[in-house]
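INSTRUCTION: Work out how this chain folds

Fields: amino acid sequence; protein C-alpha coordinates

Chain under study, with its fold:
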Amino acid sequence: MKTFIHASRITHPPSLRFGATGHARGFTLIEMILAIGVAAIVLIAVNAALFTALHLRNAATDMVDAATPVDSTVNFLKRDLQGCVTPTNGTAKILSGSFRAGNAINSVGVSEPVAVEMFTTTGALGSSQPWGEIQRVTYELKNPTDGSARGKDLYRGVLRNLLAVSPPLVEEQFMLGGVESVKFSCYDGAQWQETWDTTSLSTLNTNLPLAVKVDIQMIGANLQPVEIVVPIDAVARTNMVFASTGN
Protein backbone atom coordinates (compact mmCIF):
# COMPACT_ATOMS: atom_id res chain seq x y z
CA MET A 1 0.00 0.00 0.00
CA LYS A 2 1.34 3.38 -0.97
CA THR A 3 1.35 6.33 1.36
CA PHE A 4 1.07 9.86 -0.04
CA ILE A 5 2.45 12.78 1.89
CA HIS A 6 1.00 16.20 1.03
CA ALA A 7 3.27 19.21 1.59
CA SER A 8 1.71 21.70 3.96
CA ARG A 9 1.21 25.25 2.68
CA ILE A 10 3.94 27.56 3.94
CA THR A 11 2.96 31.18 4.56
CA HIS A 12 5.39 34.11 4.95
CA PRO A 13 4.98 37.25 7.09
CA PRO A 14 3.39 40.11 5.16
CA SER A 15 6.33 42.38 6.04
CA LEU A 16 8.73 40.44 3.84
CA ARG A 17 8.77 41.11 0.18
CA PHE A 18 10.12 38.76 -2.36
CA GLY A 19 11.57 39.39 -5.71
CA ALA A 20 11.17 37.27 -8.81
CA THR A 21 13.52 34.67 -7.37
CA GLY A 22 11.64 34.46 -4.08
CA HIS A 23 14.36 36.10 -1.89
CA ALA A 24 13.60 38.99 0.58
CA ARG A 25 14.31 42.46 -0.92
CA GLY A 26 16.10 45.32 1.12
CA PHE A 27 17.29 48.88 0.39
CA THR A 28 19.75 49.28 -2.42
CA LEU A 29 23.06 51.07 -2.06
CA ILE A 30 21.82 54.05 -4.09
CA GLU A 31 18.78 54.45 -1.80
CA MET A 32 21.02 54.39 1.29
CA ILE A 33 23.36 56.99 -0.21
CA LEU A 34 20.43 59.25 -1.12
CA ALA A 35 18.94 58.95 2.38
CA ILE A 36 22.26 59.76 4.05
CA GLY A 37 22.76 62.71 1.70
CA VAL A 38 19.33 64.17 2.45
CA ALA A 39 19.89 63.73 6.19
CA ALA A 40 23.28 65.45 5.92
CA ILE A 41 21.76 68.40 4.05
CA VAL A 42 19.04 68.77 6.69
CA LEU A 43 21.62 68.63 9.51
CA ILE A 44 23.78 71.26 7.80
CA ALA A 45 20.79 73.60 7.40
CA VAL A 46 19.74 73.12 11.03
CA ASN A 47 23.31 73.66 12.24
CA ALA A 48 23.65 76.89 10.21
CA ALA A 49 20.37 78.25 11.61
CA LEU A 50 21.37 77.30 15.16
CA PHE A 51 24.82 78.89 14.79
CA THR A 52 23.27 82.11 13.46
CA ALA A 53 20.79 82.23 16.33
CA LEU A 54 23.53 81.68 18.92
CA HIS A 55 25.69 84.38 17.32
CA LEU A 56 22.81 86.87 17.37
CA ARG A 57 22.03 86.00 20.98
CA ASN A 58 25.65 86.51 22.05
CA ALA A 59 25.83 89.82 20.17
CA ALA A 60 22.60 91.03 21.78
CA THR A 61 23.82 89.95 25.22
CA ASP A 62 27.11 91.82 24.73
CA MET A 63 25.26 94.96 23.64
CA VAL A 64 22.93 94.81 26.65
CA ASP A 65 25.83 94.18 29.06
CA ALA A 66 27.78 97.10 27.59
CA ALA A 67 24.80 99.47 27.60
CA THR A 68 23.62 98.73 31.14
CA PRO A 69 26.50 100.53 32.98
CA VAL A 70 26.31 103.46 30.56
CA ASP A 71 22.55 103.87 31.05
CA SER A 72 22.97 103.66 34.82
CA THR A 73 25.74 106.28 34.77
CA VAL A 74 23.67 108.64 32.61
CA ASN A 75 20.68 108.30 34.94
CA PHE A 76 22.80 109.11 38.01
CA LEU A 77 24.37 112.11 36.27
CA LYS A 78 20.99 113.51 35.24
CA ARG A 79 19.50 113.12 38.71
CA ASP A 80 22.50 114.68 40.43
CA LEU A 81 22.71 117.66 38.09
CA GLN A 82 18.96 118.32 38.05
CA GLY A 83 18.91 118.29 41.86
CA CYS A 84 21.72 120.82 42.35
CA VAL A 85 21.05 123.39 45.07
CA THR A 86 21.86 127.07 44.82
CA PRO A 87 25.53 127.96 45.39
CA THR A 88 27.03 129.49 48.50
CA ASN A 89 29.08 132.15 46.66
CA GLY A 90 31.68 131.98 49.40
CA THR A 91 29.19 132.73 52.18
CA ALA A 92 27.24 130.55 54.59
CA LYS A 93 23.69 129.95 53.42
CA ILE A 94 20.99 127.48 54.40
CA LEU A 95 20.19 124.68 51.93
CA SER A 96 23.04 125.76 49.68
CA GLY A 97 26.30 124.34 48.45
CA SER A 98 29.11 125.04 46.05
CA PHE A 99 29.31 123.97 42.44
CA ARG A 100 32.71 123.39 40.85
CA ALA A 101 33.61 121.88 37.49
CA GLY A 102 36.87 121.71 35.60
CA ASN A 103 40.25 120.02 35.85
CA ALA A 104 42.20 119.06 38.98
CA ILE A 105 39.54 120.05 41.52
CA ASN A 106 40.53 119.06 45.04
CA SER A 107 37.56 117.83 47.06
CA VAL A 108 37.81 117.20 50.81
CA GLY A 109 37.85 113.49 51.58
CA VAL A 110 38.69 112.42 48.01
CA SER A 111 42.25 111.29 47.38
CA GLU A 112 42.41 112.20 43.68
CA PRO A 113 41.28 115.30 41.74
CA VAL A 114 37.65 115.27 40.65
CA ALA A 115 35.97 116.50 37.47
CA VAL A 116 32.96 118.01 39.22
CA GLU A 117 31.78 118.73 42.75
CA MET A 118 28.15 119.56 43.44
CA PHE A 119 25.63 119.67 46.26
CA THR A 120 22.42 117.99 45.22
CA THR A 121 19.10 116.88 46.72
CA THR A 122 19.42 113.20 45.76
CA GLY A 123 20.22 111.85 49.22
CA ALA A 124 17.96 109.05 50.44
CA LEU A 125 16.62 109.37 53.96
CA GLY A 126 17.01 106.37 56.25
CA SER A 127 17.46 105.27 59.84
CA SER A 128 21.11 104.36 59.28
CA GLN A 129 21.89 107.76 57.71
CA PRO A 130 19.97 110.36 59.75
CA TRP A 131 20.85 113.36 57.62
CA GLY A 132 18.99 115.57 55.21
CA GLU A 133 18.48 114.91 51.54
CA ILE A 134 21.26 117.30 50.49
CA GLN A 135 24.53 115.51 49.82
CA ARG A 136 27.82 116.31 48.16
CA VAL A 137 28.51 114.35 44.99
CA THR A 138 31.74 114.16 43.01
CA TYR A 139 32.72 112.36 39.83
CA GLU A 140 36.35 111.37 39.25
CA LEU A 141 38.49 108.99 37.20
CA LYS A 142 40.73 106.43 38.88
CA ASN A 143 43.16 103.82 37.70
CA PRO A 144 41.51 100.38 37.55
CA THR A 145 42.40 97.82 40.19
CA ASP A 146 42.86 95.26 37.41
CA GLY A 147 46.20 95.99 35.79
CA SER A 148 45.15 94.37 32.50
CA ALA A 149 42.06 96.58 32.12
CA ARG A 150 42.16 99.39 29.59
CA GLY A 151 41.36 103.01 30.35
CA LYS A 152 40.21 104.29 33.72
CA ASP A 153 37.24 103.75 36.00
CA LEU A 154 34.62 106.42 36.66
CA TYR A 155 33.63 106.71 40.32
CA ARG A 156 30.85 108.63 42.05
CA GLY A 157 31.79 109.93 45.49
CA VAL A 158 28.98 110.62 47.96
CA LEU A 159 29.30 112.56 51.22
CA ARG A 160 26.14 112.46 53.36
CA ASN A 161 27.21 114.02 56.67
CA LEU A 162 27.96 117.59 55.61
CA LEU A 163 28.44 118.85 59.17
CA ALA A 164 30.93 116.23 60.33
CA VAL A 165 33.55 117.52 62.79
CA SER A 166 35.94 114.68 61.95
CA PRO A 167 37.40 113.97 58.50
CA PRO A 168 34.43 113.20 56.22
CA LEU A 169 33.73 109.66 55.11
CA VAL A 170 33.15 109.61 51.36
CA GLU A 171 31.39 106.59 49.88
CA GLU A 172 32.87 105.70 46.49
CA GLN A 173 30.58 104.03 43.97
CA PHE A 174 31.93 102.40 40.81
CA MET A 175 30.00 103.63 37.78
CA LEU A 176 31.76 102.79 34.53
CA GLY A 177 34.95 101.13 33.30
CA GLY A 178 37.06 101.58 30.18
CA VAL A 179 36.83 105.38 30.22
CA GLU A 180 39.42 107.49 28.44
CA SER A 181 38.32 110.93 29.67
CA VAL A 182 35.38 112.76 31.23
CA LYS A 183 34.63 116.45 30.79
CA PHE A 184 32.00 118.79 32.26
CA SER A 185 31.16 122.00 30.39
CA CYS A 186 28.90 124.72 31.83
CA TYR A 187 26.62 127.04 29.86
CA ASP A 188 26.34 130.61 31.13
CA GLY A 189 23.67 131.72 28.69
CA ALA A 190 26.05 132.79 25.95
CA GLN A 191 28.80 130.18 25.69
CA TRP A 192 30.12 126.95 27.13
CA GLN A 193 32.81 127.27 29.78
CA GLU A 194 35.22 124.50 30.75
CA THR A 195 35.54 125.69 34.35
CA TRP A 196 32.97 126.84 36.91
CA ASP A 197 33.58 127.72 40.55
CA THR A 198 31.16 129.39 42.96
CA THR A 199 33.33 129.09 46.08
CA SER A 200 35.30 132.28 45.60
CA LEU A 201 33.93 135.68 46.66
CA SER A 202 35.52 137.29 43.59
CA THR A 203 34.24 134.79 41.05
CA LEU A 204 31.98 135.90 38.22
CA ASN A 205 30.07 132.61 38.41
CA THR A 206 27.80 133.54 41.29
CA ASN A 207 25.04 131.15 40.33
CA LEU A 208 24.55 127.71 38.86
CA PRO A 209 25.07 127.28 35.11
CA LEU A 210 21.98 127.17 32.96
CA ALA A 211 23.00 123.77 31.64
CA VAL A 212 25.80 121.26 32.01
CA LYS A 213 27.20 119.15 29.19
CA VAL A 214 28.95 115.87 30.03
CA ASP A 215 31.33 114.23 27.54
CA ILE A 216 32.61 110.74 28.36
CA GLN A 217 35.12 109.29 25.92
CA MET A 218 35.34 105.49 25.96
CA ILE A 219 38.32 103.28 25.14
CA GLY A 220 37.84 101.38 21.87
CA ALA A 221 37.25 102.35 18.26
CA ASN A 222 33.79 100.74 18.15
CA LEU A 223 32.48 102.47 21.28
CA GLN A 224 30.63 105.74 20.81
CA PRO A 225 31.26 108.62 23.25
CA VAL A 226 28.60 109.38 25.83
CA GLU A 227 27.28 112.94 25.51
CA ILE A 228 24.42 114.41 27.51
CA VAL A 229 23.16 117.94 28.15
CA VAL A 230 21.28 118.54 31.40
CA PRO A 231 19.42 121.83 31.97
CA ILE A 232 19.51 123.20 35.52
CA ASP A 233 16.44 125.07 36.72
CA ALA A 234 17.60 126.02 40.24
CA VAL A 235 18.37 129.75 40.34
CA ALA A 236 19.25 131.80 43.41
CA ARG A 237 16.64 134.45 44.16
CA THR A 238 16.93 137.66 46.15
CA ASN A 239 14.47 139.60 48.30
CA MET A 240 16.05 142.93 47.35
CA VAL A 241 13.53 145.61 46.41
CA PHE A 242 14.55 147.70 43.39
CA ALA A 243 13.73 151.39 43.28
CA SER A 244 10.81 152.33 41.13
CA THR A 245 10.74 155.37 38.93
CA GLY A 246 6.95 155.55 38.94
CA ASN A 247 4.85 157.93 41.04
